[in-house]
Design brief:
heterodimer; A: about 260 residues; mainly alpha; B: about 325 residues; alpha/beta; six-stranded mixed β-sheet; 14 strands; about 25% strand
């Protein structure tokens, strides 16, 4: 398969995703609404009682917002997009028509990945730009992030959400069931993973959690809510790669072998 | 086993068969859905794959297209063994398997763009002509969820045409079409075969459809190909057929007596249309029967060979299978 065909297939997968209105609206809500709500509430509090509540912007609030979009709501949007990319063809019943083109099943699977990442990163970049805008607009004289921190924050957001998105594509391709994959991933992300992270008796086994490994790359200190397990950069990199590789391998295997 | 020729290019060009299977079998656990099927589909023809619902037609098509693995046997499409050379084989194949499915949130044109992307950069130029050919050019910008089943069938055919296929594999393609649509579809298939030299492999449980569209057919029942050949041969029963006549005579009693004693006649009885005569020989025996009646002083008012339809033949075959104790035992076991 040459680069032109790969690009065309990725563009086709991107088209399927961006025209899926329900998924796109929910992903937009999860990516943008929390930032808007965060700044709106903080700005209102500050204007109503400046003595008690500080300005809504500045570096401190940027850190809070960054953790929120990169480790909490952003991954939920990434799950929706990844799962849609992984199950779209099978749930519409068109996977067999793509197989009948003679294109390899692995190529059909692979084209989902850049398409899902592109849409996920597009939404998360918008979300991040909104965060930066709020950080500066509502700073009211507080220190603001420098260019390095801004770029690191963007990289961290894209890494954290991109990793979850790829895991979503892999799991969804494995199960071929959108409800099952969404339930499993959101349940893991919101409930199971934080609970395991807080069971101290599990010790270093908690380093295997994807959210803990991703939190390691945050350019701002992640507090007790976001990550509680310390690990070396090497371990964090290995954990993230293993999570992505395992789920992509399972998804590719299922796509290659399933009856269609 | 498929035809073995060492040079793949020579093999592709040399094979006169668009589809060839040998002993192709698919088992689901204990149940055999397709049972050792040998099929020869000549290029440039419309070939019907005829059988009742649940006979294994769709499973057969799915194996040919690499959508499911076969349990045993071999197959080749356009001279390419599948699944070994599946990609090359499918490059020249367009197919509709069961009901054509699409992304409902995309337009007809966008759905074709998705398949065109997987087929290759040159295919995109075929989208507009394919839509025009199936009469959907004006509706191509509408979302597929607004399409009727008939429109989806036509969009399915347009999707097949994107491949500029040498071979079209169509599974129950007229489902959901109104009578006008069915007529248009038949004409389109015949045009593809006669004017464009394409091969069409059409699976159907509708005898009338196969008889009107196809040049040749295979009759399949309970996973086995019972018989295959040209439609006319199948309808007449090939070499084993009984040749029959309808006779109108001026003296039926005398004719019954004369024909009953004739060595040319196996059986004769009255019917609503006249005397129905089963000949011992081929169709040429009819002239001798006529001469013997005239010689006996009986006036022959009408002599008409009975035209067997594929439907009669199909019902004969399936009735025979039903009557067979072995088949009955198998059915009970199943």
């Amino acid at each position: 398969m040459n680069a032109t065909i790969a690009a065309q297939m990725t563009a086709a997968d991107f088209l399927k995703l961006r025209r899926k209105r329900g998924t796109l609206i929910w992903a937009l809500v999860l990516a943008l609404a929390p930032v808007l709500i965060y700044f709106a509430v903080s700005a209102l509090q500050h204007s109503s009682n400046p003595g008690k509540y500080g300005p809504a912007g500045g570096t401190h609030n940027f850190g809070d917002g960054l953790r929120f979009i990169a480790l909490f709501t952003g991954p939920l949007a990434a799950v929706l997009i990844g799962v849609e990319a992984g199950t779209g063809d099978a749930s519409a019943g068109v996977f067999r028509d793509l197989v009948v083109t003679g294109r390899s099943r692995l190529a059909l699977f692979a084209s989902r990945l850049p398409a899902a990442l592109a849409l996920c990163w597009l939404l998360m970049t918008l979300s991040y730009l909104l965060l930066i805008a709020g950080t500066f607009i509502f700073a009211s004289g507080l220190p603001t992030p420098d260019t390095t921190l801004i770029l690191n924050g963007l990289g961290f957001t894209l890494l954290a959400t991109g990793a979850v998105c790829l895991v979503g594509v892999g799991l969804a391709s494995l199960t071929t069931s959108k409800p099952a994959a969404i339930t499993a991933l959101i349940g893991w992300q919101l409930v199971v993973s934080p609970v395991i992270a807080n069971i101290e008796s599990l010790g270093s086994a908690r380093k295997g959690l994807l959210s803990q490994a991703l939190a390691h790359f945050s350019p701002v200190r992640v507090g007790d809510r976001g990550g509680t397990v310390t690990m070396s950069e090497g371990v964090a990199i290995v954990v993230v790669i293993v999570w992505i590789a395992v789920f992509l391998a399972l998804g590719a295997w299922r796509t290659r072998t399933m009856d269609s | 086993m498929s035809t073995q020729v060492n040079d793949p290019a020579a093999r592709q060009q040399g094979s006169a068969l668009a589809i060839e299977t040998r002993g192709l079998t698919k088992r689901f656990g204990e149940r055999t859905a397709v049972d050792s099927v040998d099929l020869n589909v000549p290029r440039g023809s419309a070939f019907g794959f005829l059988g009742p619902n649940g006979a294994g037609k769709t499973t057969m098509i799915r194996m040919l297209l690499g959508l499911t693995h076969s349990s045993a046997g071999s197959a080749s499409l356009l001279g390419h063994p599948v699944p070994a050379e599946r990609a090359q084989a499918l490059r020249g194949v367009g197919a509709i398997v069961e009901e054509p499915r699409f992304h409902p949130h995309l337009t007809g044109r966008e759905n074709l763009r998705i398949v065109a992307a997987a087929r290759g950069p040159e295919v995109r130029e075929r989208i507009a002509p394919a839509l025009a050919r199936v009469g959907l050019a004006d509706r191509a910008g509408e979302k597929v969820k607004k399409y009727s089943l008939g429109m989806r069938q036509r969009l399915g055919v347009a999707r097949c045409l994107l491949a500029d296929p040498q071979l079209l594999i169509l599974d129950e393609p007229t489902n959901g079409l109104d009578p006008g649509g069915i007529q248009e579809f038949r004409l389109m298939i015949r045009e593809m075969v006669e004017q464009e030299g394409r091969t069409v492999f059409l699976s159907s449980h509708l005898l009338d459809e196969v008889e009107k569209i196809c040049d040749a057919a295979a009759i399949v029942d309970r996973g086995k190909v019972v018989t295959q050949g040209a439609i006319a041969d199948l309808a007449s029963g090939g070499g084993t057929a009984q040749h029959e006549l309808i006779l109108g005579v001026d003296d039926a009693e005398l004719a019954l007596s004369a024909l009953g004693a004739s060595e040319l006649v196996r059986e004769v009885h009255r019917s609503a249309e006249g005397l129905r005569v089963v000949l011992r020989g081929g169709p040429e025996t009819a002239a001798a029967v006529n001469a013997s009646l005239v010689g006996a002083g009986i006036g022959v008012l009408r002599l008409e060979p009975v035209r067997h339809s594929l439907e009669q033949r199909f019902l004969e075959i399936t009735a025979r299978l039903d009557a067979s104790p072995e088949a009955e035992a198998e059915r009970v076991k199943a």
